[in-house]
Amino acid sequence: MLDSLSRRAFLRAATITLAALALPGHVRAVGQAQGCDILIIGSGAAGLRCALECLKLAPELSTVVVSKGMVSRCATCMAAGGMNAVLGSVDGDSFERHLFDTVKGGDYLVDQTLTHAFCVEAPKQIRQLDYWGMPFARTQDGFVKSRPFGGSSRLRTHYCKDKTGHYLSHALLDMALSEGVKLLMDHELLDIAVEDGHLDGVVLRDVRTGEIAPLLCRCLVLATGGYTRIFWNRTSTPFGASGDGIAAALRCGLTFCDSEMIQFHPTGVLHGGTLISEAARSAGAYLVNNKGERFMQRYAPKRMELGPRDILARAIETEIAEGRGFGSGDEAYVLLDMRHLDRKKVATGLPQIVHLAKLFENTDILREPLKIRPTAHYSMGGIGVARWQTMETEMAGIFTCGEASCVSLHGANRLGGNSLTDTVVTGKWAGQGACQRAKKVNFASGKKAAALAAAWRERFQQVTAGQGNASEMYALRENLGQQLWNNLGIFRDEERLKQLNAVLGELWESYGQVRVPNANPIYNTAFTDYVELGNLLLLARCAALAAQGRKESRGAHWRIDFPKRDDEKFLTHSVVRLGAGGDLDLSWKKVDVSLYPPKERKY
Description:
Oligomer: single chain
Low-confidence stretches: 21-31
Strand content: 15-25%
Helix content: 25-40%
Radius of gyration: 23 Å
CATH superfamily of the largest domain: FAD/NAD(P)-binding domain
CATH architecture of the largest domain: 3-Layer(bba) Sandwich
CATH class of the largest domain: Alpha Beta
Distance between the termini: 58 Å
Number of domains: 4
Structural class: alpha/beta
């Protein structure tokens, strides 16, 4: 019997349906709608950590985690390198050093008070994960092991081989299942319903059946991940990471902060952009140009290949632009060379890197260098947070955590190793905040959610009833990715951004005419693609608008026409709102620099 029990079948045991949410003492029915006390959208590390905190603090409340697909198919699983935290005083490390490295790495766009709190909380979460069974690498004395990582001045990146995110995701999932977290799998978020400035509920679509229905909740937590899929053709994020939560937040009146701050990881495989972890460079891999030079000597002479990601990405693109790369156009690249390293240590300590190099480039990285080029990797921007202690947004009852949020912890450039720690720290904070509020409030009427669900059912009928060609939709998506890579990539300027904003307006209009020639609601993946494309287009428009408005260079945002950082005008977060007519509004808010005033950034 066990031989025939698949992982999906096992997870089904913890999976519920919308109808099954009507549990006595936990929810109430409002008309035809069902509800739960705390609804978490997103089943990555942030969402699961949030759920575990909710169950710990308020087991009497019903907590449900919604996943668009298989629970373990998330961006968390793709993170490889490690988790930053100060465990003891290794090599003279301290919370202050971790804070300063993060602030400097983020080019001083980091809000410093909350980041200090993050650094203090980080080791507590590593110890909690260790207790929950996450198999961290160990020293001979049995302590959790750490490795050097880009932009960090001390050894503080703790890891599980080169599969840290995979182990983190499954450690949290195992705990969630054992603690009784309820999963609503194969449901995608379509919209958030708000009435008179208050949370009313959400609209979900069951991907398997096509059912579109409202779901009420006392509190909503958005843990839907980032939006670098806007680059489509060249990104390391999974296909389903289409920024659904951020787009829905915009549509319900919330803010999108620092949307232009998109990190390009320096080492993506040449074809497609799948990530080769920073763990490779931590182990001693070289970046080499067509002259055989370790060219980082020109850009970060003290840190070399372990400089911050934004500097490395620009260095690689500069080498290519100045003729010291290999190939040309979309096939241009430099090399990641690991041949000088101990073969056994690489094979056993970095098995995923060895596997990915063979899988995507047919390269035995132990015998030959790997072709690499930067890839769109991480979103420093996200949903605006009003109170970082609880991760609550401007709208009471709506919380966010992980990559979907912008507190701002990572500023203009995230340090490697800070993202996975971010998920468990902000996930915990969001869980605490959601529990506190859910105990005090009741369900809303559900009228707005019901009306919004009806509107989405009508939209499904309209979009799928036409005679359109689905290939036009996919061509539009490919065009979106290419336009962004060319004009919102590692190097930006006014002319390209102005052109991009105009093109995005045209693509947005074209999207309004898209039709999906498949009226079958069951597993209608073309309609899923349609919804995701709309979200990607909206978020791309926000990022392009903010990038054009930020007339300076800071971190991952590099304007060749404004090559210097301008602290006088732009020591501010960009804030984008969606107007009632669909127009975007850009404003700015000050950065918290209360602990470390800005100074020149050198490595």
